[in-house]
Design goal:
The chain is about 10% helix and about 45% strand. The chain has about 200 residues and is mainly beta.
C-alpha cells in the first residue's frame, strides 16, 4: 500500500512540474505592424528589377539566448527569415570587448518619437550605426501606417536617409533610401504580394 501511495505521489509531482513548466514557457505573439505569424510570407520588388521573398517558420519554436545576466527564459516565438522574433524585437549580438552576449533589440515601435539604432555596432572605429525614429502614425483609408525614418551620422552613408512604411496587419510595405545631396533613390523595396497566416 505504501508503495502505491508513493508511486501516486511521485506521479502527481511529475505532472504538476510539467504543467508548471508549460506555463513558464510563454508564447510571444507577433505585433500588428510586424505580423510574422507562422506560415506567413511577403514578396518584394527591389530596385525595380529583383524580387525577394521573406517568410516565417511553420510554427512557434522554443527560443532562448545568452543575455548579460545569463540564459534568458525560454519562450515560443516565430522565426522570420530563420531568426527569432519577440513581437517587435530581434536578438542582436553584443560582441567583445563590450560583451559576448545577446540582447533583445528593437525592430520597430508603435510609439511616435521612439528612437533606436537599427542594430548594435562596434563604434571604436567610427559610428556606422543607422539611427531610426518612429516619426508618424496615421490612417490611410482603412489602413493604419507607421513611418520610420533613419539616418547615419558618419561614414559612407552620412548623406543618406531611409524611410520605412509598416502597415497594420500587413507589415513592411515599402522601404527607400535617398541620398540627401543628389536626391537620388539609392534603394527601393516595394511589397508586391503577401500572405498573412493569421
Amino acid at each position: 500500500m505504501k508503495t502505491i501511495l508513493f508511486c501516486l505521489l511521485s506521479l502527481a509531482i511529475v505532472f504538476s512540474s510539467c504543467k508548471k513548466k508549460k506555463i513558464e514557457e510563454a508564447t510571444i505573439e507577433p505585433g500588428a505592424y510586424f505580423p510574422v505569424y507562422p506560415g506567413s510570407w511577403w514578396k518584394y520588388l527591389v530596385n525595380g528589377s529583383d524580387t525577394i521573398s521573406e517568410g516565417v517558420s511553420n510554427g512557434y519554436f522554443k527560443s532562448s539566448f545568452k543575455g548579460i545576466n545569463g540564459q534568458s527564459d525560454e519562450a515560443y516565438v516565430p522565426y522570420f527569415n530563420h531568426k527569432p522574433v519577440y513581437k517587435y524585437h530581434k536578438v542582436d549580438y553584443i560582441a567583445p570587448p563590450f560583451g559576448d552576449y545577446h540582447a533583445l533589440w528593437p525592430i520597430l515601435s508603435e510609439t511616435v518619437g521612439y528612437q533606436f539604432e537599427r542594430a548594435w555596432t562596434d563604434k571604436r572605429y567610427g559610428d556606422f550605426s543607422e539611427y531610426v525614429e518612429v516619426t508618424d502614425k496615421y490612417a490611410s483609408g482603412s489602413d493604419s501606417v507607421l513611418v520610420l525614418e533613419g539616418h547615419w551620422v558618419w561614414g559612407p552613408h552620412a548623406t543618406h536617409k531611409s524611410y520605412q512604411y509598416y502597415y497594420k496587419n500587413v507589415g513592411l510595405k515599402s522601404s527607400v533610401i535617398i541620398d540627401t545631396v543628389t536626391m537620388d533613390t539609392i534603394y527601393r523595396k516595394t511589397l508586391i504580394d503577401y500572405h498573412i497566416n493569421h
